[in-house]
Predict the structure of HTH-type transcriptional regulator RipA.
Amino acid sequence: MPHPDQADATRLWVAPVLDDRRGAHRPATAPTSGTRTAATPPPEGRGSDADAEVHAEPARVEEPWLLITETILTPDGGSWVDGLHREHELIWATAGSLTVETDDQLWTVPPGLGIWIPALTRHHVRAAPGTLTHVTYLAPERVSPSWGAGIAGVTLSRAVHELVLHNKSSTLDDDVRLRLQQVVVDLLVPVESASLDITMPTDLRLRSVADAIVADPADDRTLTEWADTLNISSRTLSRGFVRETGVTLTRWRILVRMRQALLEISSGRSVAAVAHRLGYANPSTFTDLFRQTLGHTPAAYLRSLDARER
């Protein structure tokens, strides 16, 4: 019984490009044997589960298989809104870095980590130049995550990486392939730290502040300066940000900076350069905040990346 992964051991898709998150979609096709055209994103809005089922793309994982993995190359970087998928998705990268955004969450995906997206969840993906993105689709009828039904950060060990790639082999017996896929599922564990996800405000005024900080994490305008920009009181801005994100504006900006730090450190930039890029004149201040937010120093994080590669 052929498994979809074994049809082309070097399936390499070029990421679709979206000129604007809600604009026209310009698809790209695969540069390898066989062509895949990216599906047009379904209409915006949550809608009901039944509506989501109507707009969802056809299932990729056929019975009795548990999973299938596609690979996306973005040599110049890319940004796209992913359509609704009937399967769960695990989005991860082996080179470069990703940002995944859902309706109200922003996630960083450096190498060694992945983001679990439940079935029928629309999301927006940004890939840095040179990123090699992997999307593992898992059949919801046969795979139930141990951490519940929500979005989660997932540790991607070297063993999981190798097993997923080995799943593409055309020489595996069916029972061996199923056991291998079950081991992959069993090895997926959620990241204990919640610092990878950033809650995005939904109020349009607050969202404009959030989007500006995400675009330039070094922006150090004060609460009063932002309030003046929005023509509202500092008290209104402060209360609104805590209500919608759970943290103060200052704390939220630190989380955004640490998210960016993960991306840049994993891409090979020095700690001093990253600290300066994010607006910290003193690298030791940056290191202290990194440790307070993520539970370890930048140096320890670098060592963990090196260990994953071995």
Observations:
- Residues 249-266 form the longest helix (18 residues).
- DSSP finds ten helices and 14 strands in the chain.
- Confidence is low (pLDDT under 50) at residues 6-54.
- The longest strand covers residues 67-74.
